[in-house]
Amino acid sequence: MADHRDTSQQAQAANPPEERGRDEGEPARKQGMAGKTVTRADLSEAVYHQVGLSRTESAALVETVLSEICTCLANGETVKLSSFGSFVVRSKGRRVGRNPKTGVEVAIEPRQVMVFKPSNVLKARINGEAVEDED
């Protein structure tokens, strides 16, 4: 039985999830929907290829944009990116929670949380619908 598992693992390693189809236990996915995580390096590389800045300048540009977004959010400001969505800082009040394992009540202190609200344009793109850009 261990041989079967090894063969299956080898097949999966040779055939990454984004290339596997329904016959291998996963539903077929649309191109680009394979669950890849986009990193700062990926964003910098995209800027390098599409804008034409040097790799160093592209990395600096991405860092500057992300830093500005972080600074605004840390100051409690809303960051709205047209046709993408909004990052909003919300205040959550003090409340009583319960430990699910023991049932003991625990005080949860007030805190700030950040939420992302996607725009209708982004929602439509995710769902494969055609929608004009909003401003």
Automatic annotation (TrEMBL):
Xref: InterPro entries: Hist_DNA-bd, Histone-like_DNA-bd_CS, IHF-like_DNA-bd_dom_sf, IHF_alpha
Region (Disordered): 1-41
CDD domains tied to this protein: IHF_A
Basic and acidic residues composition bias: residue spans: 17-29
Superkingdom in the source lineage: Bacteria
PANTHER family: DNA-BINDING PROTEIN HU (PTHR33175), INTEGRATION HOST FACTOR SUBUNIT ALPHA (PTHR33175:SF2)
Subunit structure: Heterodimer of an alpha and a beta chain.
The protein's name: Integration host factor subunit alpha
Source organism of this protein record: Methylobacterium komagatae
Gene that produces this protein: ihfA
